[in-house]
Amino acid sequence: MPAERHAQRRLRNRLIVAAIRAALALAIRLPGRLPIAFGAMLGRLAGRVARRERSSCERHLAEAFERPSPAIRTTALRVFEHLGRSAGELAWAWRSPERVRALVRFAPGAVDAMRRLTAGGRGVLFVTGHVGNWELLAWAIRLAGFPSAPVGRRTWDPVLDDLVLRWRSRFGSTPLRRESPTVAAEIREALARGVSVGVLVDQSTDLPSAYVPFFGRPAPTIVGPARLALAHDVPVVVGWIRRRPDGLHVVEIEPSDPPPPDAADRAAEWTARWTATLERAIRETPEQWVWMHRRWERRYGADSVGSGAAAGGAGGGDISSSAARARAAYSGDPASCR
Q: Tens digits of per-residue pLDDT, 11-26?
């Protein structure tokens, strides 16, 4: 029976990957801005069909905004439309840098903040989340003149993984693998070369984490990026992108200073600040976040998930010595960066 279920899952995954590749191949070839409308249509369809994921969206939205409402289901459906539209936007913008620039605007002061922090020839740690069209954000940062290296995890399918890497490498970005045993060293080397490194901190993972407030509830959030920035005095910005009603996207970038040296748990407090900034962005356009994600659940295998001073607790614990080296490397533990 397990072998049969494995075979069924493998077949289903292959069909999903084939459908994704076919949809993208078709979207890229559609004339004008039809790829965007096509993606939005597929997103709406997915919202109707994917009942389990839509139910998760509705539940998490109701919990986050503390009230059940008929508007919750509408917002949940708009989440799927947003994701489909985002894929369509990427398919349309794939062809040229000019198309990316046609879709994106930078908020006043955003580019200046990046230029100021990278003026010394060093990159910044670009903290972000799955807010708005986050893949378009990576392209926009690169095309604004800032070398970039987004950190991401492998997908569940090798063919899909190759496709994602190809898209993320578009326009010159250099993706880094979160699972790499040397990822911490790779991040430090990239920063030293003037490459800004993008990290997503709005998901519950199996990495060392601290509980920090997110929509009024403690959520396990990776502390590795904050530990690394503190250990190596790395400048940090929090950035995100949001789609306006007219279809244009606005990039917001805010510099983030570290907590004072006497803070009880500097990494947890800094991580909490980043999370609060991203929450503020999500509240502005709640339909542009991935509400199907189990954000408040601890993932199996997470090391030393502590409360953290910023979450009202006594501070997170040390990294477990039994953790796999790849996870330890991304924990930000200075010892793993040697």
A: 666 666 677 777 777 7
